[in-house]
Design goal:
By secondary structure, the protein is of the alpha+beta class. 35% of the residues lie in helices and 27% in strands. It folds into two domains: 245 residues, 3-Layer(aba) Sandwich (Beta-lactamase); 107 residues, Peptidoglycan synthesis regulatory factor (PBP3), Domain 2 (Sandwich), CATH 2.60.410.10. It is built from eleven helices and 16 strands. The strands form five sheets. It has a five-stranded antiparallel sheet, sandwiched between helices. Strands 11-12-16-15-14 form a five-stranded antiparallel sheet, with no helix packed on it.
Length: 397
């Protein structure tokens, strides 16, 4: 009887332990959505974790959701110093011939690059896409090649582009642009996390161009009617149906919802909103660090005149955590090896990661708090001598 009683207690203990471990690492509940759309994905933007998917890898025509990649390459060019918002873009005859959604550019008409970006982001202007592509890469074909190269870099195996705007192929026997909800979510994440300045344009509801003569009204109703929505891109053709890549942020948490081949315009927004709301309902926002906060007091810079800098957070960081998992968070600090002067103020020297059950769910760049100039030969020799003596001390210790 005693052995049996001990066995029962042991089994009960193991069951409780198993239940405790399950609770400590909560998994996502099954949302059981009944979506009408052919394909859909919900992603937590910071980690890139896919929360929900339906036919996520089915290759479908994206229509104007294509412009997510067009905007990505445009913002990348600006970030790399290859273009500036204030520079003038001249419209070619080819760009002016684009049909569908447009701002009716005339051949030879000039607009600032920022105005063209607004036209693409707000009213999905096909003519502006071609004008920007030609301005940045010389021809639309060269720009499209860059789009496909970027798709390869991002691992978008379900994606191929033949143009910058998502219009159907001119030849009925030729296949037009195709992608998947999965790939759209990834390219959307790449755009909003690396170039969040694009949201300045995609969240605009009403604007004007040409000194007020051209009225712009956003094709994405969510930016007007869904709390926190600030982008990203809609799409429609008779072949593609109604689609949207939508994103919203609340309390530092950002989600991306992709809906493709919906039956009606209203349905795509309703279903994208339903997906976003599900994300916000099951996740909790955890503040991790504030911009400028010191993470490492002293990072050594080789060959530096004054070879110690502080590693500070480049921006505020908030982790989106499944409710119930907030006690499982850990910090991981990484510093680049062999940091060598000169170092600019704000230059990346490391990374702070937030891990949940060993999985990275959020990160922020660590940057130098000040400039470090290259030292002279005497300063470098002193630094090397100190390092040599330190190594000897460590050996004997």
């Amino acid at each position: 009887m005693l052995r049996r009683g001990i066995s029962i207690i042991l089994v009960t203990f193991l069951l409780c332990l198993s239940f405790s471990l399950t609770l400590s690492a909560k998994e996502l509940p099954d949302p059981e959505f009944d979506l009408e759309a052919k394909s859909a994905v919900l992603m937590e933007a910071n980690s890139g974790r896919i929360i929900y998917e339906k036919n996520a890898h089915e290759e479908l025509p994206p229509a104007s959701i294509t412009k997510t990649m067009t905007l990505l390459l445009t913002m990348e060019a600006i970030d790399e110093g290859k273009a500036e918002l204030g520079e003038v873009v001249t419209t070619s005859e080819r760009a002016a011939e684009m049909g569908g959604s447009q701002i009716w550019l005339e051949p030879g008409e000039e607009m600032k690059l920022e105005e063209m970006i607004k036209a693409i982001a707000i009213v999905s202007a096909n003519d502006a896409c071609v004008a920007v592509a030609e301005h940045l890469y010389g021809t639309e074909e060269a720009f499209v090649n860059a789009m496909n190269k970027k798709a390869e870099e991002l691992g978008l195996d379900d994606t191929y582009f033949i143009n910058t705007n998502g219009l159907p192929a001119n030849n009925s026997d030729e296949r037009g642009n195709y992608t998947s909800a999965h790939d759209v979510a990834i390219m959307s994440r790449e755009l909003v996390t690396n170039y969040p300045q694009v949201l300045k344009y995609t969240k605009i509801w009403i604007d004007h161009l040409r000194d007020g003569d051209s009225f712009l009204r956003n094709t994405n109703n969510l930016v007007r009617f869904y709390k926190g929505a600030d982008g990203l891109k809609t799409g429609y053709t008779s072949e593609a149906g109604y689609g949207v890549a939508a994103t919203a942020e609340r309390k530092g948490m950002r989600f991306i919802a992709v809906v493709m081949k919906g039956e009606t315009s209203d349905t795509r927004f309703e279903e994208a909103g339903e997906l976003l709301s599900y994300g916000f309902s099951i996740y909790r926002s955890i503040p991790v660090i504030t911009q400028g906060e010191t993470v490492i007091d002293a990072v050594e810079i080789y060959k530096g005149k004054d070879p110690k800098v502080e590693a500070i957070a480049k921006k505020d960081l908030t982790a989106a955590v499944i409710k119930g998992n907030q006690d499982n968070l850990k910090r991981q600090i990484l510093v680049k090896k062999d940091l060598t002067a000169p170092i600019k103020k704000g230059e990346k020297i490391g990374e702070l990661r937030v891990l949940s059950n060993g999985e990275k769910i959020a990160s922020v760049d660590l940057v130098a708090n000040r400039e470090v100039q290259k030292g002279n030969i005497i300063q470098i020799m002193i630094q090397l001598l100190k390092k040599f003596l330190l190594n000897i001390v460590n050996v004997f210790n």
